[in-house]
Design brief:
Jelly Rolls; 13-stranded antiparallel β-sheet; 8 helices
């Protein structure tokens, strides 16, 4: 054996070297931990933010660390940036372990970085990208700090405690005030309603903000550290090509945008979810379908680090994954023109769909509106009968009742949920939650058939709120932040009625009822769940004699119609408070007081497509229910009584109209009284709801909608505007003979812009190659066109003749204007009596069978009989139109949108 010293075992040698490296790393780690600059605070949720810099660039040895949950050098966590990556580490018992996969990241010479510490989550954002997003189960606690080494530097370190994002702004302030907004581009100003002499203090919704973009307008609000939120706004383009909303705004060149362009329903790439980084725009997602100008929409963005979703009118339209920004402010935008915005909200996505109505305090205190219970919570409850106050609602699934603890006393008040019917038998079959407050203690007892019980209690302060709710079979009672009781019913009750019994007291006037299947509109904001089918719907004056009072209403059309955008299937109830605007200030104040009307199960175009509920219709002679245009129930006593401005019971009253479709039962209520009902053996399918009037405007103070199921629908777009063909002037005494081969003669629309299309049609003619096609572009309307506008003498040209092709469903008559009034020649519809129109005669044998026929009428004979004292009969105009006093002007009974008929060889001349 040699005398040399043996070599160590290779494994032992390598182990010793490995241990030396581990001890060195541990010593380095502990040294680094000791070198953290720890902040004094121990906050809850927070964002730790700073700037990373390296004057000579990031060397291999450069690194920074963002420590969090630091309880000691051996019990902490951190994010390390260095070596070309960002890595999350956990230090437990002095051992440092990477968590998840590192993310490649080489910082630029300078950039911003943030660590977001949230309950159950940690994120790291640097250079405008979310690099780490990890679930984190360790509880919040410990301090936070930073460390820089190897030439890297940290500056502007901020520890920002986090509160839930919350902004509500209806822009109620002077024109130039921007409040917390920062204008990044374009011109922005707050604007008040345009109604003459309107007063902001007495208006339902007096203000909005208006943007003027050339090419772009952008305005932002909020906090830089917001990371999970929904931002929403009501938007309406005046003439802007694009409207939009932004989130994660860093500055004018960096943000996420949702832009929406005007266009047809199938316009490609009209919806765009965009990443704007350093001014460069990158599409994240795109979709078809443009918006309609002068209609309100709700635009929303749901953002959380790593994902963004765009919504229109509460429904998602685009979604994308993106690591961009991960936090930032919210904003509004438009392009190429003007747009108006209202009802800006930032909040939690989870609570974004809860609609809590707001009311002008002046309205609440007004004696007249209080008498009608227009804005009082008590209007949701029927008067106490048999010891029970029943809610008017139909709550198909969930419902929550909230009220202050102070509304309770020593005697128990009982909340009845999911009762099958609103009577004593229904109360016995409901969930009955009895609540009692004695001293500082609230007790709750639940009873439900057959033998379901539960009970609980908690301390309760006068300022606390009680919430009683049921959803998906789970009934819960909460008081403030305490849970009083929870009961999971394996066989939930299926009733829909909500009631109060026992010591009801002031509960009906203090309780707030909410449900995911119930909307309560006070029109304090833009009507984004509705669209104008006809007329102009905006905040406007109800009484010209008191113009300061303004409410939401529809005007500028003989048949204003407001439709819901969404469709409602199954059972649905629409209840609304409405009035007629005063249209002639001298007494009697109202020219044609009638028609506060509604529709359920409609198609968004035709009032005759569903159930129509007509209140004080047919010139204030009856109320009725119509099924697809046919009267199925009526009541001649349900009318407006003494509808004049001298009768304040009418003049200042808000009529409460309610239409119900519950199973096969269809019912109309007025001011809490049943007016008419019927059982439909073949109930109509679901559809949209509408409110409308005829020969009046319509003011809406409030609307409530209960439904079984909602489906997105959107706005039904109008028919395309026609190409207007100028009429051909006719010389005085020239023959009136239109064959439409080369021109339309004097034929022209009644209105501008036109609601009909006049066009030569080469596909059909009575003779020759062309005829005149007249198409209705709206449902109902005048369907009117002038045929002759150059006066002629009926004594010289008494013979009126023409060829016609009238399909079924077209309801029009001929009209002559002479002797300062209109005269009707009936064709396909009755001419209702009118003080403005005299019936001249009837064209016998008219056939509406969509085939060509010939018609002639002698004008002179009936004119001589009507006006024997006249020797000459100068006709100023000849026209074709729907009767002014007929509901066909509303599309009921005929003249649906798109209806058309044809005229050929139209002539007025001598006999023979």
């Amino acid at each position: 054996m040699s005398g040399t010293t043996p070599s160590p075992h290779p494994f032992r040698r390598h182990s010793l070297a490995l241990l030396a490296i581990i001890f060195a790393l541990l010593a380095s780690s502990l040294a680094l931990a000791a070198d953290y600059t720890l902040l004094d605070e121990e906050p809850g949720e927070y964002t730790l933010s700073c700037r990373l810099t390296a004057d000579t660039g990031w060397a291999a040895a450069a690194e920074v660390r963002f420590g969090f949950d630091v309880r000691s050098p051996t019990d902490m966590a951190f994010v390390r940036v260095g070596g070309g990556r960002a890595t999350l580490f956990l230090v437990a018992g002095g051992k440092e372990q990477p968590v998840g996969e590192p993310r490649p990241f080489q910082p630029p010479k300078a950039c911003a970085a943030s660590l977001q510490r949230r309950e159950g989550r940690v994120r790291f954002i640097a250079d405008g990208r979310v690099l780490i997003d990890a679930e984190w189960k360790r509880p919040l606690g410990g301090r936070a700090g930073t460390l820089a080494a190897g030439g890297a530097q940290l500056s502007e370190v901020v520890l920002q405690p986090i509160a839930p994002p919350l902004i509500r702004d209806d822009f109620t302030r002077d024109e130039g005030e921007t409040d917390q907004w920062q204008v990044l581009a374009g011109a922005w100003r707050n604007t008040m309603i345009t109604a003459p002499k309107a007063e902001a203090a007495r208006s339902a919704n007096p203000f909005c903000t208006r943007a003027s973009a050339a090419p772009e307008a952008v305005m932002v609000n909020g906090d830089w550290f917001w990371e999970t939120y929904r931002t929403s706004v009501s938007a309406k383009s005046v003439d802007a090509s694009t409207v939009g909303i932004a989130a994660y705004v860093q500055d004018a060149q960096n943000m996420i945008q949702f832009r929406w362009e005007a266009g047809a329903p199938d316009a490609p790439r009209a919806k765009k979810l965009l990443l704007v980084r350093n001014g460069r725009v990158t599409p994240l997602a795109e979709g078809a379908g443009g918006f309609i100008r002068e209609q309100w929409y709700q635009l929303s963005l749901d953002v959380r680090p790593g994902h963004v979703t765009a919504l229109i009118d509460r429904y998602p339209v685009l979604s994308a994954a993106t690591d961009a920004f991960g936090q930032g402010e919210a904003g509004l935008l438009c392009q190429e023109g003007d747009a108006v915005f209202d009802d800006f909200v930032v909040g939690s996505p989870a609570s974004a769909d809860t609609l809590i109505p707001r009311v002008n305090p002046v309205f609440v205190s007004d004696d007249t509106m209080a008498a009608d219970q227009l804005y009082l919570p008590a209007s949701q409850w029927r008067p106490v009968e048999g010891g029970i106050a029943w809610n008017w609602g139909e709550y198909v699934d969930d419902v929550t009742l909230r009220f202050p603890v102070r509304a309770l006393g020593g005697d128990p008040a009982t909340i009845l949920l999911h009762a099958p019917i609103a009577d004593a038998a229904g109360a016995a079959a409901a969930y009955a939650v009895s609540l009692r407050k004695v001293g500082e203690k609230l007790t709750a007892e639940l009873k439900a058939p057959p033998d379901k019980t539960a009970a609980g209690s908690c301390s309760a302060a006068e300022a606390d709120e009680v919430a009683v709710s049921i959803a998906g079979g789970t009934l819960a009672v909460r008081c403030g932040s305490s849970e009083v009781l929870t009961y999971q019913d394996p066989t939930p009750l299926s009733g829909r009625k909500l009631g109060l019994s026992g010591a009801v007291g002031s509960l009906p006037n203090l309780a707030l009822v909410t449900s995911s299947r119930f909307f309560d509109y006070t029109f304090d904001g833009a009507p984004t769940d509705w669209f104008a089918g006809k007329g102009v719907w905006q905040v406007t004056t109800r009484w010209p004699c008191q113009p300061g009072w303004t409410f939401f209403g529809g005007t500028h059309d003989e048949n204003p119609v407001l439709w819901t955008k969404h469709k409602y299937e199954g059972d649905v109830v629409l209840e609304f408070f409405a009035a007629l605007p005063m249209d002639c200030p001298p007494p009697p104040g109202y020219a044609r007081p009638s028609d506060i009307d509604a529709v359920l199960c409609g198609d968004g175009v035709e009032l005759s497509s569903g159930y129509a509920f007509v209140v004080s219709g047919w010139k204030n002679t009856k109320s009725a229910i119509l099924r697809r245009g046919q009267v199925v129930a009526e009541n001649a006593s349900a009318i407006f009584h003494e509808p004049t401005s001298n009768n304040f019971a009418f003049h200042r009253h808000w009529f409460r109209v309610r239409g119900e479709r519950i199973g096969s039962h269809i019912a109309l209520w007025l001011d809490g009284q049943l007016v008419a009902s019927f059982e439909d053996p073949d109930p109509l399918p679901g559809g949209r709801a509408a409110v409308w009037s005829f020969h009046n405007g319509l003011m809406l103070g409030r609307a409530r909608l209960w439904f079984a199921q909602e489906k997105p629908g959107g706005i039904v777009p109008p028919l395309a505007s026609p190409t207007v063909i100028p009429p051909t002037p006719r010389a005085a005494n020239a023959p009136i003979a239109d064959d439409f081969e080369t021109s339309l003669g004097e034929w022209q629309s009644f209105s501008s812009p036109p609601t009909i299309e006049l066009a030569p049609d080469s596909s059909t003619a009575a003779s020759g190659k062309r005829s005149l096609r007249i198409t209705d572009l709206v449902s109902g309307g005048s369907f009117g066109a002038y045929a002759v506008v150059t006066p002629f003498r009926a004594t010289d040209s008494p013979k009126l003749s023409f060829d016609y092709r009238l399909p079924p469903g077209v309801r029009v008559n001929l009209y002559l204007y002479l002797n300062d009034r209109w005269h009707a020649i009936t064709l396909t519809t009755e001419e209702p009596p009118s003080s403005a129109t005299t019936i001249l005669g009837r064209l016998e044998g008219i056939q509406a069978d969509d085939k060509w026929h010939h018609a002639e009428f002698d004008l002179l004979t009936p004119l001589q009989a009507l006006y024997p004292q006249l020797k000459a009969f100068t006709v100023k105009y000849v026209a074709v139109a729907a009767p002014e006093e007929s509901y066909v002007r509303c599309g009921i009974g005929g003249n649906g949108r798109g209806a058309r008929f044809w005229i050929d060889n139209f002539a007025v001349g001598p006999r023979g």
